[in-house]
Every structure is written in C-alpha cells, then in structure tokens.
Design goal:
- The radius of gyration is 26 Å and the shape is globular.
- A hairpin with a 4-residue loop joins strand 16 and strand 17.
- By secondary structure, the chain is mainly beta.
- It has two domains: about 40 residues; about 350 residues, Neuraminidase.
- The N terminus is likely disordered.
- It contains one helix and 25 strands.
- The strands form six sheets. It has a five-stranded antiparallel beta sheet, with no helix packed on it. It has a four-stranded antiparallel beta sheet with strand order 1-25-24-23, with no helix packed on it. A four-stranded antiparallel beta sheet has the order 2-3-4-5, with no helix packed on it.
Length: about 400
C-alpha cells in the first residue's frame, strides 16, 4: 500500500510539473503574440494608407496649370458643396510661373471639376498682379482667401509683392488684402476659424528676392510668417483687424525651376505652437505661443531636421496630432511626431521617374480628407489631384 501510494504521488508530481510547463509555455506564446501585435500596430497615419488614386485633371478651360494650393470646403454655399476640394493654379497655359489666375472646384461625390473663380492677371488692387500661390483657405463664414505671388514673365525678375484675394462662394472677388507685411504669400495657410472671427498664418518669401539669373541665386534671410486677425460681419467681406509678424529670418531665394524657395508648410499644434517647414534649412521649426505672441520669435526652435526630410514643403496636421510633410526633392511624404520631433515614417506618393529622384519637385499642396482617414495632394507635373487612403 505504501509503495502504491508513493507511485501515485510521483505520478501526480509529474503531472503538476507538466501542467505548469504547459501554462508557462502558453504564457510565453501569449506574450510573444502580444508583443508581435504591439509591434504591428501602426505608429501613425502613413502606415494605414493603402493606395493613391488619381481623381481628376486640375486644368480648367483656359489651360492654367501647375496646381499648388488645396482647401476643403467646410460648408455648402454658392457654387461650392461641403467637402468639395478647391485647387488653384500657379502657371498659365504656356507654363509661365506666377501668372496662373484660376481656382477650380472638385466635387468628390460626382467627380466633376468646375471653374470656381478667375481673375485678370493684371488686377490693379494686387501689387504686381495675380499668380495664385500655395496659400488658400475656405472659411465657415463663406469666404475663400488665396495668396498671390505674381510675375509678369514667369520669372522672379518681374515679380510683385502680391496680396491675399478674398472671394465669395460664387467665385466673385470681394476684397484684397495688401500691406507692407505681405510680400509674396507663399506657403500653406494655418487657420483658426471661429465663424465671425478668424486667425490666418501665412508665410511671405519675397522680401529682398530678385531675379534668378545668377548661377546660384543668393539666399536672403528675410522670409516671415504673418498672423492676420480677421473680423467677419454677416454679409460683409472679412476685415483685417491686426497684423503681427510672429516669425522672421527664414531663408529664401529665387529659383528658375520652382520660382521661389522659402518656408512653405504651416500647421498649428497644441498650445498655440506653429510648425513651419523651412525648405532651405531642411527642417521643421516650431514657433511657440503663435496665437498670442506680439513679437517675432525669429526662426523659432528646430523640431526636427534632415533625416527623411528632403526640402520639406507642404504640411498638414493629422487628427492624431502628427505632421505630414511633403518633400520637394523626392516624391515622399514624411510623418513626424511633434511631441518629440521623431520622424516616424516616409511613404512614396509620387514615383514618376521622369524626375530624378522620382517625384522631384512635384508635391506642393496637401490637405486631410474630412474623415481624417487620408489626404488629398496634387502632382503638379501631371496637373492632377490625388487621394491617398
């Protein structure tokens, strides 16, 4: 009896050890699977993008080309439906830069492209005339504001200071903003829109810049970021109440290929921080307290530089709080976490091998889809609007 009980106890201990080992193995496998799943979780938006789809040509009947700015309408009014994408053109039909005068409207539901607005190139109210740039927004109050960086012959040798043009939702020019602080409004606008008031940020890259005849045109450290505070009375065009230069001293220069190189992308983050893509500095700069400061922060502080960035241009903030920045020297878009400046990921969105590297010089405007699950961008070499989702 004792011998039999001993055998049973021994067998019981073996079973317990084996069961324990099985549990340990199961826990190890579960931990490994959990770690694998954690690693598989996307770190940002770009890793969730599956494909790029060309939606439309952006060329209107007058032949304007070189699409630059993008803006998604938050409202339905006049010619425009909510979520329509407005696109402006920087070049005319003969491909001269700084003389494009049209804004087109793409409806995502019908896939129809229509002309939203057209203005004379020699518009007297705008110093130097009209050449629609990468600066554009659509306000909830029913106004479209777009920048002009004009030229008379397609070169910076004849460029003017330009202005900001304000259109109603029928595409009719309502008013023009010009001042000594506005000189070639160049980059994407960052906007806080409260309905009856709005705050716009726009970069200006024309101060001191002349022609691009030299083999290597000089760099001027005079580009600025201007904050415009608007009052908007019902039924009346916006009025500028205050202008403040919140950043200055960014590098800018004339360029035969792309007209101007200067700070282009603007995006607002948490706590009033404004992010600026400094193309020549190959970095993204951060301007603190941009909504409230009453003096210039200079060029701010560097959030991130070099790495995946190759002349950063257009920029937008994702719903998750990351920055998407298009490159000017290749066809990639780069995702950045502004909390720590980490460059998370880069994705090729233009692989056109007609340029070297592929997509070089093609990417300007970028804007999020209304749902926040993707983004629109333009390929200016092909004159197309593309969606990435």
């Amino acid at each position: 009896m004792k011998h039999s009980a001993s055998l049973h106890a021994s067998a019981w201990r073996v079973c317990v050890r084996r069961f324990g080992a099985t549990l340990a193995l199961g826990a190890t496998v579960a931990a490994a699977l959990a770690a694998g799943n954690a690693q598989a979780e996307p770190q940002g938006l770009l890793e969730t993008i599956h494909k790029q789809t060309t939606l439309t040509s952006t060329v209107p009947d007058n032949g304007d080309q070189n699409p630059y700015a993008l803006a998604v309408s938050p409202i339905t009014a006049g010619k425009v439906q909510q979520n329509d994408v407005l696109i402006d053109n920087f070049n005319n039909a003969t491909n001269l830069q700084g003389v494009g005068t049209t804004i087109v409207d793409f409806n995502p539901s019908t896939h129809k492209l229509t002309l939203f607005a057209s203005v004379p190139h020699d518009l007297k109210e705008c110093p130097g005339g009209v050449g629609l740039s990468t600066a554009m927004t659509v306000l909830k109050s029913g106004w479209v504001i777009v920048g002009s960086t004009p030229s008379n012959d397609g070169t910076t040798g004849t460029k003017g200071a330009g202005c900001l043009l304000v259109f109603d939702m029928q595409g009719k020019l309502a008013t023009v903003f010009s001042s000594e602080n506005i000189n070639d409004p160049w980059g994407n606008m960052a906007v806080v829109d409260n309905g009856d008031t709005a705050t716009l940020f726009v970069s200006n890259s024309g101060f001191g810049v002349g022609g691009a005849e030299a083999v290597e045109p000089p760099v001027f450290k005079q580009a600025t970021v201007l904050r415009l505070e608007l009052a908007i009375e019902a039924g009346k065009p916006p009025v500028v109440k205050n202008e403040t230069v919140v950043a200055s001293g960014f590098s800018e220069k004339a360029d035969k290929g792309v007209f101007l190189i200067g700070p282009t992308g603007l995006a607002l983050g948490k706590d009033g921080a404004l992010f600026v893509s400094d193309a020549i500095g190959n970095r993204v700069s951060q301007i603190d307290d941009a909504l409230t400061r009453d003096t210039s922060a200079g060029v701010g502080r560097t959030l991130t530089a070099d790495g995946l960035l190759q002349r950063p241009l257009a920029m937008v903030m994702t719903p998750g709080g990351h920055l998407l920045v298009t490159n000017g020297l290749n066809g990639k878009v780069v995702e950045i976490d502004p909390a720590n400046g980490r460059q998370i990921y880069a994705r090729w969105i233009d692989t056109d091998k007609a340029q070297s590297p592929p997509g070089n010089g093609d990417l300007f405007g970028i804007v999020m889809t209304p749902e926040g699950d993707g983004f629109y961008y333009v390929q200016d070499d092909m004159n197309t609007l593309v969606i990435a989702k």
